[in-house]
Amino acid sequence: MSIVLMDTSVFCNVLDVPGFNQDKAAVIADLEANIRHGDTLLLPMAAVLETGNHIAQVADGRLRRQTSERFCQKVSEAIDGSAPWTLTRFWEPEQLRIWLGEFPDRAMAGVGMGDLSIIKEWDAMCQLHRGRRVRIWSLDDDLQGFDRRGLLG
After folding, report:
1. Facing residues of 147 across strands?
2. pTM to 2 decimals?
3. I need a labelling partner for 8 at 20 to 30 A (CA). Which of 78, 118, 129, 147 fits?
4. Domains in the chain, please, with CATH?
5. Element spanning 114, H or E
C-alpha cells in the first residue's frame, strides 16, 4: 500500500478536462488499480488550484461549465470524505515562507511553485511514513522521478 500524491496532469485526466485529457483511459485504469491495491491517494492543493485554472481556460463555454461542475463535485467529495482521494492541507504561512526561500533556485531549474509545493508534500509524506512507498503520480517528466520505496527499520 503506497501513498500516492496526484499531480495536476493526473487530476485533469480524471476529470476529463478538455485539452488536458489525452491520457484519460490510462489514468482511469491506473486510478482503479491504485484503489484496488489500497493505496492512499492524496490530492495536493496545488493540483486543485492548477486544475481549476486549466478548466477556466477551456474555450467552449458549455464544456467549461460541465467540467467546472464536475470539478466542484469531485473536490467536494474529497472534502466530505466520499472520494477515493483526500485533500492535503493548505499551506501554512511559515511553511510557504520556507518554500519561497528555495523558489528562485527551483525556478531557474524550471520548477514552478505548484510543483515545488507538491515536492514538499512528497518530502513530508516520506518523513511521516518511512515504512511505506511514497510517490508523485504525474504524467510530467519533472515529477515522475519522485518515488521513494519504504524503508524498514
Report:
1. 135
2. 0.91
3. 129
4. 3-148 (3.40.50.1010)
5. helix 113-128
